[in-house]
Specification:
142 residues, alpha+beta, seven-stranded antiparallel beta sheet, 24% helix, ASHA1/2-like_C, START-like_dom_sf
Length: 142
Protein backbone atom coordinates (compact mmCIF):
# COMPACT_ATOMS: atom_id res chain seq x y z
CA UNK A 1 0.00 0.00 0.00
CA UNK A 2 1.07 3.58 -0.69
CA UNK A 3 -0.18 6.99 0.40
CA UNK A 4 -0.04 10.41 -1.26
CA UNK A 5 -0.37 13.85 0.29
CA UNK A 6 -0.49 17.16 -1.61
CA UNK A 7 -0.89 20.66 -0.15
CA UNK A 8 -1.82 23.87 -1.96
CA UNK A 9 -2.54 27.37 -0.67
CA UNK A 10 -5.31 29.49 -2.16
CA UNK A 11 -6.12 33.21 -1.73
CA UNK A 12 -9.75 32.48 -0.82
CA UNK A 13 -11.62 31.87 2.43
CA UNK A 14 -11.93 28.32 3.78
CA UNK A 15 -15.67 28.44 3.07
CA UNK A 16 -15.05 29.37 -0.58
CA UNK A 17 -12.38 26.69 -1.01
CA UNK A 18 -14.59 24.09 0.65
CA UNK A 19 -17.34 24.93 -1.87
CA UNK A 20 -14.86 24.33 -4.72
CA UNK A 21 -14.04 20.84 -3.40
CA UNK A 22 -17.53 19.74 -2.43
CA UNK A 23 -20.17 21.35 -4.68
CA UNK A 24 -20.77 19.28 -7.83
CA UNK A 25 -21.05 22.25 -10.22
CA UNK A 26 -17.79 23.71 -8.92
CA UNK A 27 -15.99 20.34 -8.84
CA UNK A 28 -16.75 19.80 -12.53
CA UNK A 29 -14.81 22.93 -13.41
CA UNK A 30 -11.50 21.45 -12.21
CA UNK A 31 -12.12 17.70 -11.83
CA UNK A 32 -9.73 15.53 -13.79
CA UNK A 33 -6.31 16.20 -15.24
CA UNK A 34 -5.74 18.89 -17.84
CA UNK A 35 -6.90 17.83 -21.30
CA UNK A 36 -9.77 15.71 -19.96
CA UNK A 37 -13.43 16.60 -19.65
CA UNK A 38 -16.27 14.90 -17.77
CA UNK A 39 -19.19 13.96 -20.07
CA UNK A 40 -21.02 11.83 -17.47
CA UNK A 41 -21.04 12.04 -13.71
CA UNK A 42 -22.84 12.04 -10.40
CA UNK A 43 -20.23 14.21 -8.76
CA UNK A 44 -21.39 15.86 -5.55
CA UNK A 45 -19.34 15.73 -2.38
CA UNK A 46 -21.79 17.85 -0.39
CA UNK A 47 -23.80 14.77 0.57
CA UNK A 48 -23.05 11.25 1.75
CA UNK A 49 -23.50 8.38 -0.67
CA UNK A 50 -22.34 7.14 -4.06
CA UNK A 51 -20.61 9.20 -6.72
CA UNK A 52 -18.95 8.56 -10.09
CA UNK A 53 -17.33 10.40 -12.96
CA UNK A 54 -16.32 9.46 -16.47
CA UNK A 55 -13.35 11.45 -17.74
CA UNK A 56 -12.65 11.57 -21.46
CA UNK A 57 -9.54 12.60 -23.36
CA UNK A 58 -9.29 14.20 -26.80
CA UNK A 59 -9.07 10.81 -28.52
CA UNK A 60 -12.34 9.69 -26.95
CA UNK A 61 -10.81 7.30 -24.38
CA UNK A 62 -12.91 7.19 -21.24
CA UNK A 63 -11.78 6.61 -17.67
CA UNK A 64 -14.43 5.86 -15.04
CA UNK A 65 -13.89 6.24 -11.31
CA UNK A 66 -16.44 5.83 -8.54
CA UNK A 67 -16.89 5.57 -4.82
CA UNK A 68 -18.88 6.72 -1.81
CA UNK A 69 -18.70 9.99 0.07
CA UNK A 70 -17.86 8.76 3.57
CA UNK A 71 -17.88 11.99 5.57
CA UNK A 72 -18.68 15.68 5.22
CA UNK A 73 -17.59 18.30 7.74
CA UNK A 74 -18.15 21.75 6.21
CA UNK A 75 -15.98 23.79 5.83
CA UNK A 76 -13.20 21.53 7.13
CA UNK A 77 -13.13 18.27 5.21
CA UNK A 78 -14.82 15.79 2.93
CA UNK A 79 -13.81 12.16 2.45
CA UNK A 80 -14.64 9.62 -0.21
CA UNK A 81 -13.61 6.21 -1.49
CA UNK A 82 -12.05 5.93 -4.95
CA UNK A 83 -11.80 3.03 -7.41
CA UNK A 84 -11.08 2.97 -11.14
CA UNK A 85 -13.27 0.83 -13.39
CA UNK A 86 -11.89 -1.52 -16.04
CA UNK A 87 -13.13 -1.88 -19.64
CA UNK A 88 -15.98 -4.13 -18.43
CA UNK A 89 -17.03 -1.51 -15.84
CA UNK A 90 -15.75 -3.63 -12.94
CA UNK A 91 -14.38 -1.65 -9.99
CA UNK A 92 -10.75 -2.19 -9.10
CA UNK A 93 -8.99 -1.81 -5.73
CA UNK A 94 -10.49 0.86 -3.51
CA UNK A 95 -8.54 3.69 -1.89
CA UNK A 96 -9.66 6.67 0.21
CA UNK A 97 -9.33 10.42 -0.41
CA UNK A 98 -9.77 13.25 2.08
CA UNK A 99 -9.89 16.91 1.11
CA UNK A 100 -9.04 18.99 4.20
CA UNK A 101 -9.37 22.78 4.27
CA UNK A 102 -7.74 25.06 6.85
CA UNK A 103 -7.42 28.82 7.23
CA UNK A 104 -4.02 30.44 6.58
CA UNK A 105 -2.80 34.01 6.96
CA UNK A 106 -3.37 34.61 3.24
CA UNK A 107 -6.53 32.54 2.66
CA UNK A 108 -6.76 28.78 2.99
CA UNK A 109 -4.88 25.55 2.46
CA UNK A 110 -6.16 22.42 0.75
CA UNK A 111 -4.63 19.07 1.69
CA UNK A 112 -5.38 16.16 -0.62
CA UNK A 113 -4.68 12.96 1.29
CA UNK A 114 -5.06 9.86 -0.91
CA UNK A 115 -4.48 6.68 1.11
CA UNK A 116 -4.34 2.94 0.57
CA UNK A 117 -3.22 3.06 -3.05
CA UNK A 118 -2.14 -0.36 -4.31
CA UNK A 119 1.54 0.48 -4.85
CA UNK A 120 4.15 3.18 -5.48
CA UNK A 121 3.40 3.29 -9.23
CA UNK A 122 -0.26 3.99 -8.48
CA UNK A 123 0.78 6.75 -6.06
CA UNK A 124 3.00 8.30 -8.75
CA UNK A 125 0.18 8.21 -11.31
CA UNK A 126 -2.28 9.74 -8.84
CA UNK A 127 0.27 12.40 -7.91
CA UNK A 128 0.44 13.43 -11.58
CA UNK A 129 -3.35 13.41 -11.91
CA UNK A 130 -4.05 15.36 -8.72
CA UNK A 131 -1.26 17.85 -9.48
CA UNK A 132 -2.74 18.52 -12.92
CA UNK A 133 -6.25 18.87 -11.50
CA UNK A 134 -5.03 21.22 -8.78
CA UNK A 135 -3.45 23.48 -11.42
CA UNK A 136 -6.95 23.87 -12.87
CA UNK A 137 -8.34 24.69 -9.40
CA UNK A 138 -5.53 27.21 -8.79
CA UNK A 139 -6.46 29.03 -12.02
CA UNK A 140 -10.08 29.28 -10.84
CA UNK A 141 -9.26 30.51 -7.32
CA UNK A 142 -7.09 33.54 -8.14
Amino acid sequence: MADLKLERDFPVSPETLYAWVSDGAKLLQWWGPEGLHVPRHDLDFSRLGPWYSVMQNGEGQQFKVSGHVTHIDPPNSVGFTWAWHDDRDQRGPESHVTFSVAATDSGSRLVVDHRELVDAESATNHNEGWTSSLRKLEALCK
